[in-house]
Design goal:
The structure holds two protein chains of two kinds. In chain A, the strands form four sheets. In chain A, strands 3, 4, 6, 13, 15, 17, 19, 20 and 22 form a nine-stranded mixed sheet that branches. Chain A has a seven-stranded mixed sheet with strand order 9-10-12-5-2-1-11. Chain A has a four-stranded mixed sheet with strand order 8-7-23-18. Chain A has one domain. By secondary structure, chain A is an alpha+beta fold. Helix content of chain A is 22%, strand content 28%. By secondary structure, chain B is mainly alpha-helical. Chain B has two domains: 12-138 and 276-302, no CATH class; 163-266, no CATH class. Chain B has 15 helices and four strands. In chain B, β2 (112-113) and β3 (116-117) form a beta hairpin. In chain B, α3 packs antiparallel against α4 (75-88), α4 (75-88) crosses α5 and α7 runs parallel beside α10. The chains are: A alpha+beta, B mainly alpha. The A-B interface holds A 161, 181, 184-185, 188-189, 220-223, 248-249, 252-260, 292-293, 295-296, 375-376, 379, 381, 383-387 and B 34-35, 37, 90-92, 134-137, 139-146, 187-191, 193-194, 196-198, 201, 243-246.
Chain lengths: 464, 309
């Protein structure tokens, strides 16, 4: 039986006997259909000092017996250092940190109030996402074999990348051509290779219909994600969401620029329609990637995990954080936020952190990369920066009441200008045609002067 | 007037003027285009603090050495240190920025060996802060690589105005460090795009052309400077690729600066002065000195001034 190798952010994946090589954070050959960000991977990095807990999620949809993953890791891993996590935790983290749409309602200009309501969050839009004798002769050492959850895991070390490549091929792992040259760098740096594949019997016993994320805990000064293996044979750019949970503050890359995503802007209210915000976000992200020459990582969220404002989802509970590997939280880590579900929770949650709450700072980074623009692996550092940042986009609903004072006239005039500015801002952020945007907004294709402002109540009554 | 004539006229005799202009332009560029994690207000706070600290230190030192003599404030060197600090130091806390600015200037006066300060002021200030608190950081990735051209122009231009005899340390360092990066990539079988990408780092260029090149803290002899450059390059490489820590350049320069007195003893040479010969002859020229208007210039004062710059 043959397995296929997929590349991962940190890693490469292997699958059995399928003709193409797939990738985890790397070249993922999912169906190019529906997903907002194809070929995307999600990685959670919990880091404090030299200790790291890494959780890797994938949305592999193929035949599970064809799935396998190869991940270079800095150290040998004992059985207890490997765990299978819960995908819901990453989904919750995603929902909590996702760029969000907020709406406000204009007041009656003739009265002298505010409602701030979260309408929906942009959840990460989908997937973004026998030997031992022969092994010795090839210079490959099987240092350990474990079965953890539904996965069979091998920890390999190698003397030569060519030996490792041969061993993997002979054992049914179909790895991309060209992987050897990338593997060689990791081999010479004495890194180990974590190879996982699905144990179908265990999987059937456990009853999961999807692959749960793999977690590894290790101690090493290296704070990095190996993305190079994932780019071997990559078909186009890859998408990666990296969530860093740290004690001190924001995480950034030291060998690439980290840029804040444009945020806090008023946009046309039609973005509230189903699918529109997702469409806006993907277009805006692509435009920003192009503007920066595809050479930067984007900061999408940086926040103390004890609160949020507004909340796209409740903060993760202490228990959830511990499951993700936040090892400095103990049972007495302070009051944990109430457990909450993920998804489009609709409420603001200005919850100032209490002094004895656990210190966990979340950084969400989003990067689109290929080998031409990202030649080397991502290297991170934790900074002391605790300034909050979120992708937040605002909808301001117009007041549609009856004009009963002169201020209402002035409001109508200013409204027209404001909506025109929103249309132009949306066009510049996404590259969309501004006249199309105006049409969708019912502004008229020619801009603010083309259509007089309606200031009679009956004129607005049946207008579409 | 011919072009060379124009260039000669514009060419500042004191390379620090050019350095200040370049660093200020880079800061402006970083603030407006690259979204540096520093506000204009914070930059002003740092600059005011370094200038004030320099003024106080100059007063104290001058008063101690030559009571009753005129006191000059070394604005240019303080500005260079301050601007470099603005480009490199990041912290959420303004009081720590102030402490860093004070330390940057203070290490220049406090840590001296035979009249020569040990650490490049900005390097000394940054390393001291990184040792003292975990609330400051340096963002080596903040420059990206799109600014490479701008940086190269500014940096190479800066070297041009430096005295050729002292830009050797810059060239030696980049050669050593480049060789180590390429050597490592070749050994590991990595594509050359990797060392090239590392060489494009704006942080590396800033360090190479504006920090390690500081003629006041590098060894006096050429052989000494080349040796020093090799040591710094190896140290930086070791920190980054053996210890896997950030800011290898800063740590290495600070550590290697401790070896400069030994290198100077083994390989002696002439002490550097900032002023080019014509300017040195006119040592009291107003564009090069700032002093109390009514005080007379004296040869002793000039000698003192040159020692303390």
């Amino acid at each position: 039986m043959k397995r296929h190798v997929f590349s991962v952010v940190v890693a490469s994946m292997v699958a059995w006997s399928a003709p193409t090589v797939l990738g985890f954070c790397g070249f993922y050959v999912a169906k190019a259909d529906t997903k907002l960000f194809n070929k995307a991977s999600q990685v959670v990095l919990v880091r404090d000092g030299d200790r790291t807990v890494m959780t890797m999620a994938n949305d592999f949809k193929g035949d599970l017996k064809e799935f396998a993953v190869v991940i270079p890791v800095p150290t040998f891993l004992q059985r207890e250092q490997i765990h299978v996590g819960d995908k819901a935790l990453i989904d919750h983290l995603d929902a909590y940190s996702a760029p969000r749409l907020v709406e406000y309602f204009d007041e009656d200009p003739c009265r002298v109030i505010v409602s701030d309501r979260m309408v929906l969050s942009m959840s990460r839009p989908a997937a973004a996402a026998g030997v031992s004798g022969r092994a010795r002769s090839l210079g490959v050492t099987i240092e350990a074999q474990y079965t953890v959850g539904e996965y069979d895991i091998l920890i390999l070390s190698a003397q030569q990348s060519s030996g490792l490549e041969t061993w993997l091929r002979e054992n049914g792992y179909k790895i991309p051509s060209g992987a050897s040259s990338v593997l060689s760098s990791y081999v010479k740096q004495n890194m180990r290779f974590f190879v996982a594949r699905v144990n179908l019997r265990e999987q059937a016993k456990l009853g999961f219909s999807y692959l749960r994320p793999l977690q590894v805990a290790y101690e090493s000064p290296k704070f990095m994600l190996p993305i190079r293996l994932g780019m071997v044979n990559a078909d186009g750019a890859q998408e990666l969401f990296a969530y860093a949970l740290t004690r001190k503050g924001r995480v950034e890359t030291t060998n690439y620029r980290t840029v804040k995503l444009p945020t806090d802007m008023d946009l046309p209210v039609y973005l509230k329609e189903p699918g529109e915000f997702a469409r806006f976000y993907t277009a805006m992200f692509s435009r920003q990637v192009g503007k920066e020459g595809m050479r930067v990582l984007f900061l999408e969220y940086a926040w103390d995990m004890r609160w949020c404002d507004p909340c796209a989802a409740d903060p993760l509970s202490n228990d959830e954080l511990r499951q993700l590997g936040v090892f400095w939280l103990d049972a007495n880590g302070g009051p944990s936020p109430p457990p909450g579900g993920s998804g489009s929770v609709v409420r603001p949650r200005p919850m100032p952190p209490s002094m004895n709450a656990p210190e966990v700072f979340l950084t969400r980074l989003h990067v689109r990369y290929d080998s031409a623009h990202f030649p080397e692996d991502l290297v991170f550092q934790e900074t002391a920066d605790r300034v909050n940042f979120q992708g937040r986009y605002v909808l301001r609903h117009a007041w549609h009441g009856e004009e009963s004072c002169p201020a209402a006239g002035a409001y109508r005039r200013s409204l027209r200008d404001r909506q025109e500015q929103e249309a132009q801002r949306l066009a510049s952020m996404t590259g969309w045609d501004v006249s199309e945007i105006r049409k969708t907004m019912n502004l008229g294709a020619e801009g603010p002067d083309a259509q007089p402002i309606s200031n009679k109540w009956w004129e607005r009554l049946w207008r579409k | 007037m011919t072009l060379p004539g124009v260039i000669r006229r514009l060419h500042p005799r004191d390379p620090r003027l050019y350095q200040i202009a370049t660093l200020a332009s880079l800061l402006l560029y970083g603030l407006t285009w690259l979204d540096f994690e520093i506000t204009a207000a914070r930059a002003i706070l740092i600059l005011v603090t370094v200038l004030s600290t320099q003024a106080v230190c100059d007063q104290v030192t001058a008063g101690r050495l030559m009571p009753g003599r005129p006191v000059a404030v070394n604005i240019k060197s303080a500005l260079i240190s301050g601007l470099s600090l603005c480009l490199l130091l990041r912290t959420n806390r303004p009081e720590l920025a102030v402490v860093a600015a004070v330390l940057t200037i203070a290490v220049k006066f406090l840590l001296r060996f035979r009249g020569k300060h040990l650490f490049n002021p900005t390097n000394g200030g940054l390393v001291a802060m990184l040792l003292l608190t975990d609330q400051v950081w340096v963002s080596p990735g903040q420059w990206g690589s799109a600014v490479l051209f701008v940086f190269l122009m500014a940096s190479v231009g800066s070297v041009v105005v430096m005295r050729a005899s002292r830009s050797d340390v810059t060239y030696a360092f980049i050669l050593f460090y480049g060789a180590m990066l390429f050597g490592r990539a070749l050994y590991l079988g990595e594509p050359l795009a990797i060392p090239l990408h590392r060489l494009e780092s704006g942080a590396l260029l800033l360090f190479t052309f504006f920090m390690i090149s500081d003629p006041k803290t590098t060894p006096d002899s050429r052989a000494g400077r080349v040796l020093f450059a090799g040591l710094v390059a190896f140290g930086a490489w070791y920190v980054q690729f053996r210890m896997f820590r950030t800011n290898g350049l800063l740590w290495s320069l600070a550590a290697c600066s401790l070896s400069v007195p030994i290198i100077d003893w083994l390989l002696p040479g002439d002490r550097y002065t900032w002023l080019s010969p014509p300017a040195a002859a006119a040592a009291g020229a107003p564009e090069l000195r700032w002093r109390h208007p009514s005080t007379p210039t004296t040869a002793a004062f000039d000698r003192f001034q040159r020692r303390t710059i």
